[in-house]
Amino acid sequence: MSRRDINLETKLIHPSGVANYNQETGAVNVPVYLSSTFHQESFDTFGPYDYSRSGNPTRQALEDTIAKLEGGSRGLAFSSGMAAISTAFMLLSAGDHIVISEDVYGGTYRFVTEVLTRLHIDHTFVDMTDLKAVTQSVQANTKVIFMETPSNPCLKITDIKRVVQIAKENNCLTFIDNTFMTPLLQRPIELGVDVVLHSATKFLSGHSDIIAGLAVTKNEELGNRLAFLQNSFGSILGVQDCFTLIQGIKTLGARLRQSSDGALKIANYLKDHDLVEEVFYPGLEGHQGHDIHLEQSKGAGAVLSFRLPDRKITKAFVEHVKIPVFAVSLGGVETILSYPTTMSHAAMPDEEREKRGITDGLLRISVGLEHVEDLIADFESALTTAKSKDKSTIV
Ligand SMILES: Cc1ncc(COP(=O)(O)O)c(C=O)c1O
Question: Which among 5, 191, 279, 376 is least surrounded, fewest beta carbons within 10 Å?
């Protein structure tokens, strides 16, 4: 088998496509180099590492892994997904403009609206599924088009290739938040995207234990500029968390396969439930952008959302469901039930949230590794209770 034939599942464990072990000791796990500084043998020429903010061998192993998985030229590890995203935005300067998905993650929304505007970097939110609107939003000073697909929490699908084309026609860079898909399901660099960003807190680490962010650039020049900003800004990922993330990435294939299978079953179950008004999951045939998603990715992932009639029924459902944790975040081994209105999108004003379909009845599920039949039985029981409670107060 030539190296080009190596599957991504194999690369998760052996990023270069051959047995991955420490050349000096044979250890199958990367050593954790807990060292802030590095002795220099020569007075005149320094070695590859001098100070761990600028570079560390454990972090390097993680950065090389994510670069290989995304098929990019350079990977960089940050202290959080938001650190990766905000450092990438530092590629811009005062007077520049960003076109950005209107249903972007709440923290990105906050950074763009409350921090970048203060630095005179302007933005236009746009429905990225509407390519005409994307073209119309581009201005003479637009430098970046920022996508998130599937988007959060309604899993709207953006046609990545077409947006890249619009960006190229207008000399803009494209950034994408690939958190929901991971490189295993979606490889935006192959579709022409310039910078891929991750909240590695989610599926990549997979165990709801660390906060981490990753960025991968398509070309080296952009990689060097971002590495300069990573070092200048200083929000690097600590080495112990780098180690934990490398370990998490190794099991991503098995985890994502099982969680995605469960998500499809749960989406189909919810779709047929009479209390559920809408289900948002790219794996469902009727989902907006289903065909585009199938074309540009290898699966629908493990996150879905659904709409219940109102806040009261939603509250009753959440209070009676037993297996999922009710929490922010996603991508863990445990199923996580979230309420976007007060959790991921709390940073968004009510009016903006409702415009984006994030109503009081919307819940998001990140499906974990529990047996799917147990989850469905749990949901069935909680929905039945929620329904009966609703009726009992009406009477
Ligand atoms: C899609 C998406 N992007 C970015 C972030 C921010 O990542 P972090 O919490 O690791 O800073 C999140 C966090 O929930 C997210 O869901």
Answer: 5
